[in-house]
Amino acid sequence: MLVKPNAIRRDLRRVEIKVLAGFLVALALLILAGGYTYTTSVAFANSLEWVAHTQGVRVSLAELSGSIANAELAQRDFLLSAEAARKDDFERLTAESTERLDLLAALVADNPLQLANLAVLRSAVARRIEVMRGALAALDHFGVAAARAVVSVARGTNGGSTADILAQVGRMDEVEARLLSERQAASERNRVITLVSLVITLALSAILFMALFRGIRSEVKTRENLEHELQAKAKQLEESNQELESFSYSVSHDLRAPLRAIDGFTLMIEEDYLDRLDGEGRRYLTVIRENTKRMGALVDDLLAFSRLGRQAVAKSAVNMDALVREVVDEALRDHKGTPPLIHIEQLPIAHADRGLLRQVWVNLISNALKYCSKSAQPTITLSGRRSATECAYVIKDNGVGFNMDYVGKLFGVFQRLHRADEFEGTGVGLAIVHRIISRHGGRIWAEGKINQGAVFTFALPSGESSG
Amino acid sequence: MDELAVADILLAEDSDADAELTLRALRKGNLLNKVVRVRDGVEALEYLFHEGGFRERPGGNPKLVLLDMKMPKLGGLDVLRRLKSDERTKLIPVVVLTSSAEDRDIIETYRVGVNSYLVKPVDFAEFTQVVAQVGLYWAVLNRLPP
User: Could you give the CA distance from residue A159 to residue A74 in angstroms, rounded to a whole number?
Assistant: First the structure.
């Protein structure tokens, strides 16, 4: 059994598709897994930022309480000591508190609850600062007693106390603390998800590439095996070709020798003993010699046919007009009987092996001459045409033709549609023509009708020189 | 045939039928002056180099050797190689007469230095013509180097 080249091509195509599909799937999975890992890591980074943000809010709250407490301390010191520096401190610290409130407003802008809380805090701080300023103004205008009165009155009224401010800061801090723990939990979750998806992506790609590697390796192995198989087949083929060659060598040598002896000795009888034979005896000798010749022709034709299979086809541009005229002239030189009319139309240049094509024309033209030899006026027309893909050549005769029922047998070896006593021949000529045309990648076909001639057409692929 | 005379033509042919046909063809071409026939390659070399059964034969080379390719013991190609590589026999014209028209035989014999290569036709009439022409050309018309 031979490995069919088509099957191998199909196999290789299948492998290519498999490898390509594997790579595409791997790529898609990697992109998906990688994308997921990317989004989870972005979420993780965001949650970390939120944690930092919350911590920032808490720090700002603590700093605000610090500023307020320090402002109060500075005010009291001033009330007690009347040191101008402490008053300056107070002014600086209240300004600082207001700035801290503005900063906090910016930080919690995303949180409505904290914004509401901040509004409460802001008014508490404003009230407290107002009261402290009130005490300082009383001290300025009316003395220490008035200032103390302002302070104690303020303590009695609602708000305005530092404790309220601190409580409000505490509330806000609690909210932030809750947010912080929530955000820390979210960030932890994101960290785990990122890590897991990263590990899964890496594991998946490792598995995929291992699978791909194994697949490719097994396909390479299969290819190697196929190649070995092919090499083995090629070797077998070469061996059987060699066997065939030595077989045909023996045939050509050993089969012809006895034929020569039969023919030679029959002729010797004819030459030396003819006077001792009667008419029937002489006829027998003629039959023997005719058959010997026929057998010789068969052996020669068969050898020519088998040699064709081994002969290389050397293509070049062939001037068909010149070739055909050469063959026709030669055929007419040996022609006996009614001189035929031969029309040769312009033939396209062929891209083929000249020697082999010559054999094609010799066989087809001698066939045409043979089968129209019994017509009143043998006529043969040779024509050609060219299409985009091939050059076709037509040999038409007005001879005995053939029955289209047997057209399938026309090109077989030793297949004849006529008896040897009607038309001589071995039945190899058209088989040789068919083989030569096939070896050129062309095709040949025939049309005919009994007693109405035959048309043989062969087409050759137009090569680079035909343009 | 006087086997001890110097042959004009040495015919190396294993098949009796072919030898008889060749002799008849030569006779028909009036060329039967002195033909010696040997049956294989070894005998052919013995004749040419005065060895074996031909030790006693008179000196001198034949004018032509007709050599069959396929012979027992030693084939035509080996005989040809020996002939063409020896100074004493190098100049003898050798015509290969064979049934085989195989390209590789033709190429190889010409490479070794054959003077002519002829395929024996099956048709005896043709065969006679070919042998007579070859004999006439090489044994009679052709001028050998002195």
Answer: 20
We report the CATH number of the domain holding residue A390 as 3.30.565.10
Domain-located, residue A76: yes
Residue of chain A minimizing CA distance to B101 = A252
In a domain, A273, yes or no: no
The residues, any chain, with a CB within 8 Å of residue A100's CB and separated by 6 or more, are A60, A63, A64, A67
- Choosing among 3.30.300.30, 3.40.630.30, 3.30.450.20, 3.40.50.2300, the CATH entry for B9-141 is 3.40.50.2300
- Encoding tokens for residue B105? 């035989």
Q: B70 contacts in A (CB within 8 Å)?
A: 253
Q: Which amino acid is at A406?
A: Y
Q: Which candidate in B122, B127, B131 is best for mutational testing of the A interface (most A CBs within 10 A)?
A: B122
Report pLDDT for B80: 92
- pLDDT of B1 over the 60 cut: no
Q: Assess whether pLDDT exceeds 70 at residue B146.
A: no
Determine the pLDDT at residue A467: 36
pTM of the model: 0.51
Contacts of A168 (CB under 8 A, 6+ apart): A117, A120, A121, A124
Residue spans of the domains in chain B: they are 9-141
Name the nearest CA neighbour of A42 among A197, A177, A181, A206: A197
Joined tokens for residue A349: 């240049």
Q: At B64, is the secondary structure helix, strand, or coil?
A: strand
Average pLDDT over residues B36-40: 90
Residue type, A425: G
Q: What is the mean pLDDT of chain B?
A: 82
Chain A residue at shortest CA distance from B23:
A264
- Residue A437 confidence (pLDDT): 92
Q: Which of residues 98-127 of B touch A (CB under 8 A)?
A: 98-102, 120-125, 127
% chain B with pLDDT above 70: 88
Full domain range(s) for residue A461:
313-466
More confident residue, A329 or B30: A329
What does the pLDDT read at residue A157? 61
A354 within 8 A of A322, measured Cβ to Cβ: no
CA distances to A76, A87, A93, A131, A154 from A81, rounded to whole Å, are: 8, 10, 18, 19, 21
Q: Which residues of B touch A292 (CB under 8 A)?
A: 122
Taking one residue from A and the other from B, the number of pairs with CB-CB distance under 8 angstroms is: 59
Using the beta-carbon criterion (under 8 Å), do B17 and A265 form an inter-chain contact? yes
Which pLDDT does position A4 carry in this prediction? 57
Instruction: Give A249's contacts in chain B (Cβ within 8 Å).
Output: 100, 102
Q: Is residue A275 part of a domain?
A: no
Q: For B14, name the nearest residue in chain A, comparing CA atoms only.
A: A257
| Low pLDDT (below 50) residues in chain A | 1-2, 159, 465-467
